[in-house]
Each structure stands twice: as C-alpha cells, then as structure tokens.
Design a protein that fits this description.
457 residues; alpha+beta; Outer membrane efflux proteins (OEP); 2 domains; four-stranded antiparallel beta sheet; 4 strands; disordered N terminus
C-alpha cells in the first residue's frame, strides 16, 4: 500500500526516458530552428539587409551621373501666312506661304552631371552610415529577444511536461488512498464523509490532469510557432543543476551596464544622432548647390518647314560644358517648415532615448531582484520538498494506525506535489531570469545559451 501512495518511475520506464532523451532536441537545436524559421526574426534580418543598401545609394548620388536620351518621331507640320517681309529688295512685301510637310525626325543626347557641392547629399552619406549601424544593433536586439523567447518557450514546455507527470502521479496516489478508504468503509472503519472527501480529491485530480495535458499541447504549439516547425522530445534539466547568483552580484554594476550597453539604448542613441543630422540637412536646403555639366546633342530631320522652306536632310549638333549653380531664395516656406519638423524630431528622439534608458534600468533591476529571490526560493523549495515528504510519511503512518484521516493524508500528498511542482518551476525561472538580466544589460551572448544547454540531459 505504501508503494501505491508514492508511485515512481520503474527502472524500465526510466531507461526508456533516458534513451528518448539521448535522441531529444536540446536548447541549441530549437534555437537554430528558430533562427531559420521564425518569421519575425527573418523580417528583422531582411530589414537590416535593406538598410545596408542606404550607404551605396547615398554615395551613388555623389558620383558622376551619365545618361543618354533619345527620340524618334514622325512629324506633320503646317505653315501659312506672310513671311520674309522686307528681307530682300526683291520681296519688299514678303511672300505668302501655305505649306504642309511630313517627315521623320531622330535625335539623342549624352549628358554627364557631377556634384561639386551639395551639403544635403554629403549629410545623407553620414545618415546612411548611422542607419546601417542602428539597423545592425536592432538586429542583435532581435536576436537577443529570440533567445529569450526560445528559452521561455523551451522551459515552459518542460514545466508543462513536469505538470503532466506530477498530475498523473498525484492522481494515482489519490486513487490508492480512495481504494484504501473504500476498503475501510466496507468494514466500517471510516465514515462515509471520508470516502466522499477522497472521491472529491480524485475528481479534482482528474480536472488537473486534463488541464496538464492541454498545457503540454499548448506549450508545444507555442514552440512550433516560434521555430516555424515541429519540435520533438525535449531534453530535460539535470537534477544536479543548482542556480548560482549573478556575476557580479552587485545591482549597481548591472544598472550601469544597462544604461550604457543595453541594445535598445544604443539604438536610441544612434536615433538621436540621426535626428541631429536631419536638422543639419534641413538647414542645408538653404545652401547653394553647384554641379558640373557636360552634354552632347545630335538632331536629324528629313524635312520640316521650321528648318527652312523645302529643307531636307537637316542635321544639328550641340556640345556643352559648364557649371550650374542653384541658390534657393524663396520656397514658399517649405525650408523653414522642414527645419521645425527636424527639430521636433530631435526632441522626440532625445525623449525616446531617456525613456529607453529608464526602461533598461527598470528591467535590469527587476531581473536582478528576481534572480536573487529565485535562488533563495529554489533553496527554500528544496527544503520544502524534504519537509513535505517527511510530513507525508508521518501522516501516512498516522492514517494507517487510525490517528489521521484520509483528508489529512490527501492534504499531505497535495502539499508534497505542490512543493515538487514549485521547485521544478523555480529552477526554470532562475535560468530565464538570469538570461533576462544579461539581455537587459546588453551582454547576452551565444555562449550563455551554450552554458544553459550544458545543463540539459
């Protein structure tokens, strides 16, 4: 009867579990799947690749621009009126013309433009470099968020598996108590109330088992959504794993790191620099622009009244080299409006930077406190498991000799299983809180995931 009250994995079941774990997915494999299959992360990566093109596009506008224009057309012309009045002594009154002409015309132009001075274009080159840097930092931040998301989902799945295991064992233990209570009730050793109490506890255990099975399905679905594919059996956290304190174990150091190294803070700092450049660009619209120009033009027409009465086979060429200067004098207020908008954008970027800094400080403080409390909680729950097991044994002895009721025994059982659930969950929380602390401080790395992965078996 005692063995029925505390069902454990048999040797063969445990061996099967070990063999399955040897072929199970570990944290790094799930993370690799997420890198390749998570659409949100792929979107950020594509955004970074798009941002990379900002610099060559800005540079291209400062390089020589060469183009060719060409045209070919069929022209119908008509001309009527008195022309050439006083042009010659022979025709003092000119001559009347009423003529129509139809002919083909072709032409082309080859042109080259080189920017000599354009403050806005030079500043665009600077802003493009800043945009690339900011996109890179945001990509690293997205990778950190994916790491945290994978770890959260992975250990949430393990926690769901644990809950199912505990719920199954708890139900079996309650069934054993109910069977023993029925035996005692049949010979009049216990009252009907105790039998109903045991049945009620079994019904609650059934409900908990249903919820646990659903939680396993939900956790696997969340992992699949995160990775973009199916996830198999997961490796479990080693029983010997004991969470350690943050290094260094000083909250002030972590706060300082967060306010200077947090990736969101760094991205917001670059956003401020971009906003300053935009203010300079807005003022730069008041500056003159100087370009060097060169062009060659060729035109050919088979006829045409405008080329001379009865003209045929007219050709014309034009070669030009020069400098073009543009000085904005009045633009309808557009320049002043652009300056005001850019200055407002700078103010907004500076406020966003302050908000990101405060948010990073808040997150790192919460994560540090959760780490410290989590470690103490794991230790306390480990002691609680030992205490609840001892309490269950003592209550069971009392129940068998008649000094304790089945309600006492069921309460002791539930207390032990609750302590075991909370202990397992607390160890997972300790890991995720440590990674959140490092992410908030801007120091989360691939090596941190490898370290966590090494604790799995």
């Amino acid at each position: 009867m005692k063995n029925l009250l505390r069902p454990l994995l048999s040797g063969s079941v445990w061996l099967c579990a070990v063999m399955a774990s040897a072929q199970a997915d570990d944290l790094m494999l799930v993370y690799t799947k997420a890198l390749d299959g998570n659409p949100e992360y792929q979107s950020v990566v594509a955004g970074y690749q798009q941002a990379l093109e900002a610099k060559p596009q800005a540079l291209a506008k400062l390089l020589p621009q060469i183009g060719v224009n060409g045209d070919a057309s069929v022209v119908n012309q008509s001309l009527s009126g008195r022309f050439f009045v006083g042009a010659t002594p022979q025709l003092p009154n000119g001559t009347d013309v009423n003529r129509e002409d139809s002919f083909n015309s072709v032409g082309y132009q080859v042109g080259l433009t080189q920017v000599l001075f354009d403050r806005g274009l030079y500043l665009s080159l600077d802003t493009a470099a800043l945009e690339v840097s900011r996109a890179g930092i945001l990509t690293y931040d997205a990778q950190d968020q994916l790491r945290i998301g994978v770890v959260d989902a992975y250990f949430a799945a393990l926690a769901a598996d644990d809950e199912l295991r505990f719920a199954t064992s708890e139900k079996s233990a309650i069934e054993a108590v109910l069977a023993q209570t029925r035996d005692k009730a049949a010979i009049g050793l216990v009252a009907d109330a105790e039998l109903k109490t045991a049945q009620a506890q079994l019904d609650l255990a059934d409900a908990g088992l249903i919820a646990a099975r659903n939680a396993v399905s939900v956790s696997r679905a969340q992992l699949s959504l995160l990775t973009g594919g199916d996830v198999g059996v997961l490796k479990i956290l080693a029983e010997t794993y004991v969470p350690g304190p943050p290094e260094p174990n000083q909250i002030g150091v972590w706060i300082e790191r967060a306010t200077t190294q947090n990736l969101q803070v760094k991205a917001s700092q670059l956003a401020v620099e971009l906003a300053r450049k935009n203010v300079d660009k807005a003022y730069g619209l008041r500056w003159p622009k100087l370009n060097a120009l060169a062009a060659y033009t060729y035109d050919y027409a088979q006829g045409g009244i405008s080329n001379g009465i009865g003209a045929e086979g007219n050709r014309a060429t034009d070669e030009r080299v020069g400098i073009q200067l543009r000085v904005p004098i009045y633009t309808g207020g557009a320049v002043n409006s652009g300056i005001r908008a850019a200055q407002a954008g700078l103010t907004r970027a500076q406020a966003d930077e302050a908000a990101k800094r405060n948010d990073a400080s808040r997150k790192v403080q919460i994560a540090f406190l959760n780490c410290s409390a989590g470690i103490a909680r794991v230790q306390a729950l480990k002691r609680a498991i030992e205490s609840t097991r001892a309490s269950e044994e003592a209550t069971r002895v009392g129940y068998e000799v008649g000094t304790k009721t089945n309600g006492d025994l069921l309460l002791a059982l539930r207390s032990r299983y609750k302590a075991e659930r909370d202990f397992a969950s607390a160890r997972y929380d300790a890991i995720t809180n440590t990674l959140r602390l490092r992410a908030a401080a801007g120091s989360l790395s691939h090596a941190d995931l490898l370290a966590v992965n090494s604790t799995l078996q």
